[in-house]
Specification:
By secondary structure, this protein is mostly helical. It has helices at residues 3-28, 37-55, 60-74, 77-88, 94-120. The protein has one domain.
Amino acid sequence: MSLWVWIAAGALGGTFSVGRFLLDGAISSRTQGGFPWGTFAVNITGSFALGWLVGAALSGTTLLLAGSASVGAYTTFSTWMFEAHRLGEDADRRPLVAYLLGSVVVGLLAAGAGHYLGRTL
């Protein structure tokens, strides 16, 4: 891997992680309650984007930079797990179940929709 790929990965990763922070903050500031809508939105849009990239048949360095460096920095598994744990600390477990199942089901649907659109464009 060339130095330029490493530099591009760092620049894209930094840029997309800031995008995640901004979107999460914008959504979280507009929603009530303890449900982590910001992280949910980030991970669903990231699932769609990665599905689209794969459906568009990107490969090699292009897929590495667009998928791993960009979408990988944008989405956040660790925050998803932390927020699921936080929801699980409450007596009412329904938000936890909704968050976990909703993230997986809607994420898979978003990835599938992105993949379909990526193939057709």
